[in-house]
Amino acid sequence: MSVHSILDVAIKVLLADPSASLGDVAKAAGVSRTTLHKRYATRHDLLVALAHDAYDRVDKAMTDAQLDVPGEDVVAGLERAITALIPLGPRIEFMYRQIGLDDVPDLVTRYEQSGEHLLRLIQRGQEAGKLRADLPDWWILATLEGSFYTAWEAISFGRLAPLDAPKLVMTTVMRGIGT
Q: Residue 151 in contact with residue 165, Cβ under 8 Å?
């Protein structure tokens, strides 16, 4: 089983049961505990790997959404970002819920940098008059993040179809921050 497959299973297991052990993850992944321990010596090592994987996927999604293209329509960029982030919901939901990784300096740094792509897009939108300039850029970013989280949670509870989520988030956010 590949590293990404194990991480995919681990996310599901740990979201369902935050106290799940490495043995629980190994069993769900269909691998032996020894195999899992060869890759991740401790549960903390697995959590760190999951966190890095989540940040890697978010970074790739933001790069693929091409948010830093000068002259690009900000609203279209926001829609691409939302559409790219919705499928990553379980990974990001796990990150929001996970406690105990605040002592890993490179993860703290990644967390602090994680919203930079969207923040720059928001600032361009404010300068172009597409987003409200009377709200702080960080507040608009926090509003987006809150809307993403709400959509991901609604999807996980079966209240929202994944394909409906981007439009719902976009409509909600733009009516609140759009001019």
A: yes
Cα(149)–Cα(116) distance, rounded to whole angstroms? 18
Structure tokens at 95: 């990150």
Flag whether the pTM goes above 0.85: no
What lies within 8 Å, CB to CB, of 18 at 6+ separation is 97, 98
d(CA 142, CA 130): 18
Give the C-alpha separation, 80 to 112, whole Å: 22
Which residue segments constitute the domains of the chain, with CATH numbers given?
A: 1-41 (1.10.10), 48-177 (1.10.357.10)
Amino acid identity of residue 168, one-letter, is: L
Note the pLDDT tens digit of each residue in 43-88. Answer: 999 999 999 999 999 999 989 988 887 777 888 999 999 999 998 8
Give whole-number Cα distances, 138 to 88, 104, 121, 135, in Å.
22, 24, 12, 8
Q: What is the pLDDT of residues 113-154, one digit of tens each?
A: 888 889 999 999 999 999 989 999 999 999 988 898 899 889
For the chain, what is the largest distance between any 2 Cα atoms, rounded to a whole number of angstroms? 57
Residue count of the chain, please give it: 179
Cα 74 to Cα 58: distance, rounded to the nearest angstrom: 19
- In our burial notation (b when 16+ CB lie closer than 10 A, e otherwise), range 135-168 reads eebeebbebbbebbeebbebbeeeebeeeebbeb
Return d(Cα 132, Cα 59) in angstroms, integer. 26
